[in-house]
Amino acid sequence: MKLSNELKRKIRQVIYITIFWWFVAFFFVIHDHLFKESLKGSIFKDYNFWTNLITNLFAVATAGVTGGSIIVFFLKDRFKRRPLWFGIVVNTITFILLISVVTIFASLFYNALVTDLPFSHPEVRSRTIEFYTGPGYLMVLVNWTIISSLTLVVLQINDKYGQGIFLDLLKGKYHKPKEETRIFMFLDMQGSTSIAERIGNKKYFQLLNEFFEDCTKAIVETKGEIYQYVGDEIVISWKIKNGTKDANCLKCFFEIKNNIQQLSDKYLKRFGVVPEFKAGLHYGQITVGEVGTIKKDIIFSGDVLNTTSRMRDLCNAFEVKLLVSEDMLRLLDLKDGFQTKEIGEIQLKGKNVPIRLFNVFIGVKTAVAEKGTVKT
């Protein structure tokens, strides 16, 4: 069974969490070793470095897979519509319960190894209860609750700025502007003003929020990144490699279209309308960097953004849903199913050189036979 990109992304996150927690556990083991004399009696009745190391790696592997899965598949998104305090309380309680359970088994494991006795032996159970009722358990609980909470914060930062951005921020990658070449799609809902007037602002906001959520699955599946939301518009970005592979940047538009069509009954029942949308697709060089003082953000700047936005605005004039630049099409190796229709060379506002635009749609025949060759 083929795994979706969304599931693969979440599995990778669980693996990263486990690896990160392993490093933290190793640090704690080294700390324990350096201060083993002062920790005897409070944490260790008998101390053995290798037993402590094996126990921690075993416990963290279990906690990483279990706890990481709970964070990624449940906690991170489960309470995003609830008050912040509610999410903090639930997360903290969940972490405490998980840490408590793992600590019991880890303590049993450690004491069984150092005493060379079975888990069920009264001496092993006695040592475990002694640890669990002493300061050692409290120290473990506090340390790993903090680590788990920080892990959740890192995931939330990645959701805010995009996957992998947290490490880039730590390294200061965007403190100075960087130049990149990226693909952009500007996609917005059609007739949003009239829809808002008909159903009211509050219900329109709910419609917009659900529309964005239903678009997200297709964006993730095609390895896109949500750059920003602007009113009723989503700005989607791809690194060149991700966007051109299997024509992901084009597939994204049609997968969103299919998702919305499949959910049409839901939209009609709740809002009395099925969202329609249009988009422009183009690529070019941009400058990316961190801006702001009180509120910081990572922004893209470049002519490609203005060009793509104006392409999207022309969709209504040409009565099409998707406009793609010729330069963009030349990067793609289109397979059977896509067709293109040339719109012509268009002089965009503020541009000195006209740009050749194409409408791309799903058809029976192949419109682009070879990479770099656009047929009309």
TrEMBL record:
Residues 183-312 form the Guanylate cyclase domain. It holds the Pfam family Guanylate_cyc. Keywords: Lyase, Membrane, Transmembrane, Transmembrane helix. It comes from the Bacteria. GO terms for molecular function: lyase activity. Its EC number is 4.6.1.-. CDD domains: CHD. PROSITE patterns: GUANYLATE_CYCLASE_2 (PS50125). It is an enzyme of class 4 (lyase). The chain crosses the membrane at residues 12-30, 50-75, 84-110, 136-155. This is Adenylate/guanylate cyclase domain-containing protein. It comes from Splendidivirga corallicola. The lineage of its organism: Bacteria, Pseudomonadati, Bacteroidota, Cytophagia, Cytophagales.
